[in-house]
Amino acid sequence: MYPSRFRYEAPHTVAEAIRLLAAGGDNAKVLAGGQSLVPLMKLRFAAPELVVDINNLPGLSYHRADPDGTLRIGALCRHADLERSALLAGTQPTMAAAAPLIADPIVRNRGTLVGSLCHADPQGDWASVVLSLGGSVVAEGPDGRRSIPMTDFVTGPFQNLLAPDEIAVEAVIPAAQGERRGGYLKLERRVGDFATVGVAVSLETAGEVVRRAGIALTGVGASTIAASAAAAALTGHSLTAESIAAAASAAAEAARPRTDHRGSAEYKRHMVATFVERILTRCSAEPAERAA
Amino acid sequence: MKVTLTVNGTEYARDVEPRLLLIHLLRDELGLTGSHWGCDTSNCGACVVWLDDTPVKSCTVLAVMADGHRVLTVEGLANGASLDPVQQGFAHCHGLQCGFCTPGMMLTARWLLNNNPHPSSYQVREAISGQVCRCTGYENIVKAVLWAAEYEAGG
User: Fold this and answer.
1) Residues in chain B within 8 Å Cβ distance of A34
2) How close does chain A come to B54, measured CA to CA in Å?
3) Which domains are assigned to chain B?
4) Do residues A38 and A53 make contact, with C-beta atoms less than 8 angstroms apart?
5) How far is B53 from chain A (nearest CA, A)?
6) Beta strands in B8-155 (DSSP E)
7) CB pair distance less than 8 Å for B18 and A51
8) Cβ within 8 Å, pair A106-B108
9) How many angstroms separate the CA atoms of A153 and A137, rounded?
């Protein structure tokens, strides 16, 4: 399969990339890892006239924590970088759990977290993780930078809030208010398949009390779903069998699964509850990660 | 558009369409047909080559993205007449049947052993989990990689 013909540019500065995108209007696409865009172009689901490859932009491969614990992930940070990250392993349990579950090991060498957020696939794992952590995306355009909360960033399946002349340069995870606990579980038929169901749970705890909770669901709706009522069932309480069951049941209620070749709607809804319960039960049994 | 890349230590310059995929540049333009064009949908991994220092699925990389970079294919695995230990392991352990997935499997195996010289059988399985052997000969592929690890450890 070949993509349709397109013009290709590989600028060396963000300013030049933005200028190219502005000139390309609605028919331009940003290419980072290419692990979603190239397949879409080969299938002709996407046929941009201009592809702006950002792989030559310097200084975007990072993921690092600010002194206050805010985590920043650059647009060219690959899934594999996050999978092998000691920083994430020590401070971000939800992200560390999700990184080895993204696509397959070879795709992870190339694909990026920020690109995955921009792709806005309802079955994308990172969107749920970042949503559960209260994260945001930093977009850079001709007028400078703006921060877009993940709750607003995805506007629909495969659609995001970026203007045609903006580039998502960074994802940001705010510092925890307390200690972090959490996890990500994904049901897939085989490695590399899209999630049948994915569940991200991120907690910030003080002692035994949950100060902030985020729960988000992958693959069980037309977009990533923030299970706010499930998170609210935990906030202000300690993790008990009752609060865990209440959160699991509220998350299952928030799911909007459809029956397809991966399973029935009923089965997927059941798996949402099971995964929420499983992650929270682990959280209640294990010591929290160092606050970050 | 003009691209210059180094494949298995040799520099090549070609004028290509931006939509040309890396697998087709390697096979059709450079005549390096060791890398196989399989599923064409990023699933099977028959097309795995190294781009600089990491394995990638070359059906999902544009050839122009390799401009200025190094590529390693199965043709570059042996050191002259001496087979790479991974290749020896596949020969020893019957790690290939039809051979279609073999180049990609061996390039991933080489990368794994460079980064983890003593992998467990689970780690080998994890490393090749994005690649498909349609003969279902996984058991011997895993044995072949473990054989190479042992060989390199002097065992």
Assistant:
1) 60-62, 65
2) 7
3) 2-76 (3.10.20.30), 85-152 (1.10.150.120)
4) no
5) 10
6) 10-15, 48-51, 54-57, 70-72
7) yes
8) yes
9) 7
Which residues, 6 or more positions from A13, have their beta carbon under 8 angstroms from its beta carbon?
A: A57
Chain A residues within an 8 Å CB radius of B17: 5
Q: Which residues of B touch A119 (CB under 8 A)?
A: none
A221 to chain B, closest Cα gap in Å: 24
Long-range CB contact pairs, A268-275, < 8 A, 24+: A268/A196, A268/A197, A268/A219, A268/A220, A269/A220, A271/A187, A271/A196, A271/A197, A272/A197, A272/A199, A272/A217, A272/A220, A272/A248, A273/A248, A273/A249, A274/A248, A275/A185, A275/A187, A275/A197, A275/A198, A275/A199
Query: Residues B65-111: pLDDT tens digits?
Result: 999 999 999 999 999 999 999 999 999 999 999 999 999 999 999 99
Domain A179-286 sits in which CATH superfamily?
CO dehydrogenase flavoprotein, C-terminal domain (3.30.390.50)
pLDDT in tens, B32-72: 999 999 999 999 999 999 999 999 999 999 999 999 999 99
Cβ contact B48–A35 (<8 Å): no
Interchain contact, B19 vs A110, CB within 8 Å: no
Of B21, B65, B126, the CB nearest to A105: B126
Fold of A7-53: 3.30.43
pTM assigned to the model: 0.96
Residue B14: how many other CB atoms lie within 10 Å: 15
Probe site for chain B from A29, A45, A106 (most B CB atoms < 10 A): A106
